[in-house]
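Task card 7
Instruction: Convert sequence to structure tokens.
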Amino acid sequence: MSKEQTREYLLNRIVDKLTEFYIADTGKTIEDALHRVYNSKIYEALTQPDSYLVSQSPSYLYYLMMAE
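Output:
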């Protein structure tokens, strides 16, 4: 697996977990949860080429997202 493939895998996994956490906490729909995740500052930071955030735990990133 290349570095880019690994990074893409981690990003997708993080988005999945953030979405799951948001739905569990708020009871919102998957559409609402994905909208919240994809429009967050955390997601914007995660998609930067050399972001260290992809190596952080999804629960920590969820905390940061909810603190925005």
